[in-house]
Design brief:
Elements: H1 8-24, H2 35-42, H3 46-58, E1 62-65, E2 70-73, H4 75-107, E3 110-117, E4 120-127, E5 142-144, H5 149-156, H6 160-167, H7 174-183, E6 186-189, E7 196-204, E8 210-219, H8 225-250
Antiparallel strand pairs: 1-2, 3-4, 3-8, 4-5, 6-7, 7-8
Helix pairs in contact: 1-3, 2-3, 4-8, 5-7
Length: about 250
């Protein structure tokens, strides 16, 4: 019989690997697991899983529902997620700036970045036109997703069940959203503010998941005929260039 004696470092590494295997079970979209389910998913014995769950629970990474006897992700995971999102947003802003400046320099119209914020879109970057007649919006402003081009871009990349309640009291339907997603851009005319035209295109990651939305907006008198066609083309192109730069910077995971 061959006896293998693990060093303290090897034992610690093995325990960490097993803890991560348990946490990775929650990546498949299921919100909670029983002890036996986690044992089955990881291939670890119930005794081993229970021991590791105890350690993860004590640190706030896992919580146990005593009523259903199931395990869910803890508050510490939520805290880490917020930190990661903030970090990714900083990267997105840094990567986007030179491309957004190109769009601003070419048309001298307002260029902005939006991200999903519950039922709203949140402005996280705003480069404003120097013209006297322009559309005013500040970083931190929130607006309903059901109004404006940027909102429609976010909606068309959102899970159907998640967006369904948002569409109930709007004139937006699934067919329209699928058409927008297929075209790769959205245009709105006077939806949020009379006389304002907005063009929006998605910024996507390596899995084609929405990271943010790029928009170009201004008075309708400057968004007509060939002008608006050129602005649509350039907004879509800049959004794709930002997507590629973001993917290259962050890398694939």
């Amino acid at each position: 019989v061959k006896v293998v004696i693990m060093s303290e470092q090897q034992s610690s590494t093995r325990s960490i690997d097993r803890a991560l295997e348990i946490l990775e079970c929650f990546l498949n979209g299921e919100g909670r697991f029983t002890l036996s389910e986690l044992s089955q998913h990881t291939g670890l014995s119930a005794t081993t899983v229970l021991r590791i769950l105890g350690a993860l629970t004590s640190k706030g990474f896992i919580e146990k529902d005593e009523i259903t006897k199931t395990y869910v992700l803890g508050y510490k995971v939520s805290q880490l997620s917020k930190v990661a999102n903030h970090s990714n947003e900083t990267v997105l802003k840094n990567v986007s700036m030179p491309f957004m400046m190109d769009l601003l320099d070419k048309y001298n119209e307002d260029v902005r970045l939006f991200v999903e914020d519950g039922p709203n879109k949140l402005c996280i970057m705003s480069l404003e036109s120097t013209r006297s007649l322009r559309h005013i919006m500040k970083v931190g402003d929130r607006h309903e997703l059901i109004k404006g081009a940027a909102g429609k871009i976010i909606l068309c990349h959102m899970d159907r069940e998640k967006r369904k309640p948002l569409l109930i009291e709007s004139n937006i339907d699934e067919e329209l959203l699928e058409m927008i997603k297929s075209k790769g851009y959205a245009v709105s005319i006077g939806e949020k503010e009379e006389g304002i035209v907005g063009i929006a295109a998605p910024i996507l990651d390596w899995n084609n998941h929405l990271v943010a939305c790029l928009s170009l907006s201004g008075p309708s008198i400057r968004f007509v005929n060939e002008e608006i066609e050129d602005k649509i083309k350039d907004t879509v192109n800049i959004a794709k260039r930002i997507s590629n730069a973001y993917i290259e910077f962050v890398g694939k995971v």
